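Course assignment 3, question 2. Fill in each field.
Student: A.L.
Task: Predict the tertiary structure for the chain below.
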Amino acid sequence: MPSSTFYPATGSDDGHWFVSGTFSGQLYNNSSDVVFGNYPSGKIHAFCRFSIDIPAGATIISAIPHFVSIDSHSVAFDVNVSFVDADNPSAPTSASTANAMALTDVINWQNSTAWVSETTYDGPDVATLLQAVIDRSGYVSGSHVILIVAENASASNGYRRSYALEGSTAKEISLEVSWEEAESSIPAGTIPWSGLAPHVSRAEAPTGTITWSGLAPHVSRAEAPTGTITWAGLAPFKPVVYQRIVGRWSLPVYQRIVGRWSLPVYQRIVGRWSLPVYQRIVGRWLVPGISRRIVGKWSLPGTISRRIVGKWSLPGMVSRRIVGRWSLLESTPVSRRIIGHWSLPSLTPSVAATTWSWSLGDDYDLDGLTLTGDRDSFAWTVELTLADEATYLACAPGQRLLITLAGQAMALILESRTREVACGTVSYTATGRTLSCLLDTPYSDTVIRTWARTTARAAAEALCAAVKLDLAWEVCDWTIPAGRLTASAETPISILSRLAAACGAVVQPTLVGGVRVIYRYPVGVNELADVTPAVSLDFDRTVETLSEEFQGQPGYDAVTVVDDRAETTAYLSVTTDDSRNAGRTTFPPGEPCYIRVYHETDYTVAVTSGTAERVVQDETESLSAMVTFDGADTTDLEALVASVDDVIWFGTDGGEAVPNGGASIILAGGAVFGVALITYTTRYDVWRYTPAALGETFAAAIRVEAEDIVSDDTDIGGMRLTVSRGDGLVLAPDELSAALACSPAPATQAGRNYLDEYGQSSLSVDVKSWPEGNETWSLPGDVVEVADTDRGETWRGTATAVSLELTVDDTGARLLTETTTVERPMP
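Answer field:
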């Protein structure tokens, strides 16, 4: 019985939204948790979107959602569980779209069991609900489904919090499903035919009759009522199977088969069978009677009677799976070593043609396509080989194209084209890049700006929105104080790259026409074994070649991350408290003196004698100042600016002013020439200093010094912290600068990704494969699993680069290959 566990693919695939209370109408899909039930601030519904690889027509035996609790909670909850009743639904992005989704029937889930932190809990069996989705006419294998957990009648504070994908890539919500695939019962019948049995398709046939009972010997998974079929020439009832099949079959397939195919063999198959093979073969052949290059479909004598892997068209019999040296019967000698995928007796495999289309339409054609990209490139390059002059003229520089390969779309901008004449032959090419190139010159102007207080994600979204690109922010978010993010004639992609680097991330394109920010290592090197790989490559199915290159690294297991404001620009100022000291500057022995400490960073106080104690923390005072902006957007006031309360302009209106760090303010609308009265709030700590009695007259000194280490996310003054893994004994000799990190969360991720890169040596492995059907392509950052059957090992690594190549053979069939560079960590 087939079974599998499915997970959300991206952070936006899980989340929750409020349907009542303070935050009613708010949807959260980038949090570390997924909440459902009766929350203190309102009632919450939750969702989780899965891509399920279950064949249409399957019978769902069980479907159990699993939740890993993020904390401990014991109040009973009462919720309704359902699925979105739609074909391949998108994840909701707002509460209004979530509330508008049509749902299946519900299963009520009441639970009074206390949930304990870091413990996995099962939801109810929702097999009947999932069955309703599978049975929809528009459902196909690989579609998305959305699980809904909706508050119903939970007790006060009856809610649960489970991990979201952003919270843990190993503890997110999962859906475990078991199913059975539909079997067709075919009644007995009689078919007259000529000569060869009708299950040998693509063959000329004299008359004859075959009688069977039960499953027809020539058709699998098809209705075949009793009757008579006659034809002339090629058999008209080519047995076609277009759905995924797992199981055992009657003639002509005896053993387990996994894959998609059109029998007898028109696509890739893996299994054991006895079938004549009439497949396309391309290559040069050294076979009795065939000594030239042949291209086309052939009816070569012979039968494949044992296990084979790949696509084949053979003039002899393959009697077993072989790696090494062998001979195929007496008529087809093979005396050299062959490892990998092959189409014997040639080494050239036959691969399934790839479907494609593009926005120029069917009147224009391609002879080839190559896409290349790596994790350090924000825009990837696409080179097109054009079929003719008409296509060349249609592919003008500046043209936007949408190309779909095997069901997967990519959007690009053409930037150049070339026409070359050589030996009387004219060739045409065009080159473009993914739409993420819009963030760079010449498409975007450079930016001159100083940002007010913002978050990293908000700043990044604004940069992308300016060129109408969607942004997928798949990393942590943090606050950037006013004045910390500045740009002086800098491109948007340069600014976005600095924001990403502050948390150890990179900027990459999305093929459909957007930008995503992901960690350099989305899954830590030490966690590769704990996650489900995004792509699996199998030597027995899809891998053609594999090459390896050693990459030595120093093996650090600790690194010091420094925010460059740690010792330089964090605001710290000390004055006497004139109001508490009554204006005095001298004091009798034993009488206290009060001071104010204005600060943006943690600090320490030291005195030469006596004692000092903080008596008031974060006291505020309202101040006013008349200031002039002389063609500038910033100015300094007398004290630390906690907030700007009012701005009154005299003449030219310069708009809103906001804190800019320290005693500075900045105009949100940019530089002006103007005069304004600024009312602002300052903030300070009050210290009481009582010196020791050292005589009638003596001097005393007080020192206030900034600390180097920030211990919480709210401090905006800079930091220095050490990130380690394992024993942390091998410290990197150079500090890692994280200029915009501003808080421990992004700085820790910057350090973690640094150690994932330099903490161990690795093999850079290039794996060339054939994507099958609508298989997911590997993208940089993906966890890739490689099953190397020749070595008897399976290993995982992180994809760092990808190259897709579409070629056209002599008959016009388009063949797609993918080369994935995978970084395989070495122990």
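Instructor remarks: Confidence is low (pLDDT under 50) at residues 184-351, 709-717. The longest helix spans residues 744-758.
Grade: pending
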